């Protein structure tokens, strides 16, 4: 039943940023250009409308526009996981059905936020999405932003269903990650969330990763994953350390997403500023971001040529 799931979906997924025009509206042409930018770089797919994608800062119509642009551009070339979590179960189900209609491969969702919900409410919220389509479902566990920690009890219950194929583990405990992997059992996927510890997550059982900073340096995460699979752990450690230097610098700006989107502009893909309340970078940051992009591009060149 689930036996081929891991080989079918494992790999590197870019948590794709959204693309807006200069007025801050969703810009489908820019979304397409960004999706196209990621084809041919060795990634397995895209995670659309998640944290990095600002899905929860967009209304349902905008989220559909983003996804439709992605599907039109790269369907069949990249595996598309869509984050459909919204505060209300009703809107989440609407987005899940839309995802199925436009041909997305997998749906995924965080719990509803704002209300402190008991586990039964979160379970019911997810179950409605799962039941609303024939698509596989990936639980998105990100306790540091949602306040909800997925228990292994709930995971075990959900993972019994064929449609529930995995979890995106954005919590930082690799012990919990390993527990999720073990609880999910054979054919259950675990994706590493924190990009800073991709290698650690892989070593503790993750089948791949889904991350936001991959978007500005996908080649480096593809290479990191390859080094892990080839059992070249010391080289992988060296690369993770290098990548973490870049992530630390990205995290020093008013918002991580603002910094990443500015870097993408420098790489030739305009995506606009992040949506408020996420702060954009300011003119005084431009010079150091150009420096950072030069360093990222040099590392990509180093790791993709020979080595
Ligand atoms: C909150 C958030 O965005 N988490 C992402 C996914 O799990 C990560 O990809 C981070 O963006 C990344 O690890 C940088 O801290
Ligand atoms: C980072 C991540 O996985 C997300 O943006 O949803």
TrEMBL record:
Pfam families according to UniProt: DHDPS
Keywords (A to Z) from UniProt: Lyase
Swiss-Prot/TrEMBL GO biological process terms: N-acetylneuraminate catabolic process
Gene Ontology molecular functions: N-acetylneuraminate lyase activity
GO cellular component, one term: cytosol
Protein transport keyword on record: no
Entry-linked SUPFAM superfamilies: Aldolase
Record-annotated active site: 140 (proton donor/acceptor), 168 (schiff-base intermediate with substrate)
Nuclease among keywords: no
InterPro entries: Aldolase_TIM, DapA-like
Binding-site residues, pyruvate: 210
PANTHER family noted in UniProt: N-ACETYLNEURAMINATE LYASE (PTHR42849)
Family classification: Belongs to the DapA family.
Name of the protein described by the UniProt record: N-acetylneuraminate lyase
Source organism per UniProt: Paenibacillus rhizosphaerae
Lineage: Bacteria, Bacillati, Bacillota, Bacilli, Bacillales
């Amino acid at each position: 039943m689930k036996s081929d799931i891991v080989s079918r979906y494992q790999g590197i997924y870019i948590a794709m940023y959204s693309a807006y025009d200069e007025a801050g509206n969703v810009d489908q042409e820019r979304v397409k250009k960004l999706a196209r930018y990621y084809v041919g770089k060795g990634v397995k797919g895209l995670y659309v409308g998640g944290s990095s994608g600002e899905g929860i800062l967009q209304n349902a119509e905008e989220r559909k526009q983003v996804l439709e642009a992605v599907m039109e551009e790269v369907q069949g070339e990249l595996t598309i996981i869509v984050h459909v979590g919204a505060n209300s179960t009703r809107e989440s189900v609407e987005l899940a059905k839309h995802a199925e209609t436009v041909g997305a491969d997998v749906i995924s969702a965080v719990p509803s936020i704002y209300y402190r919900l008991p586990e039964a409410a979160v379970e019911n919220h997810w179950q409605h999405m799962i039941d609303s389509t024939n698509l596989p479902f990936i639980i998105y566990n990100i306790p540091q932003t949602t306040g909800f920690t997925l228990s292994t009890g709930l995971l075990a219950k959900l993972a019994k269903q064929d449609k529930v194929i995995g979890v995106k583990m954005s919590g930082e405990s690799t012990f919990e990650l390993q527990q999720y992997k073990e609880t999910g059992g054979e054919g259950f996927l675990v994706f590493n969330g924190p990009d800073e510890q991709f290698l650690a997550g892989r070593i503790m059982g993750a089948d791949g990763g889904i991350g936001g900073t991959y978007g500005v340096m996908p080649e480096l995460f593809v290479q990191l994953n390859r080094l892990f699979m080839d059992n070249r752990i010391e080289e992988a450690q060296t690369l993770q350390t290098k990548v973490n230097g870049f992530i630390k610098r990205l995290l020093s700006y008013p918002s991580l997403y603002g910094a990443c989107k500015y870097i993408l502009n420098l790489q030739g893909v305009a995506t606009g500023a992040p949506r408020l309340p996420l702060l954009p970078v300011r003119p005084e940051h431009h010079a150091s971001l150009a420096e950072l992009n030069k360093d990222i591009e040099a590392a990509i060149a180093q790791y993709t040529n020979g080595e």
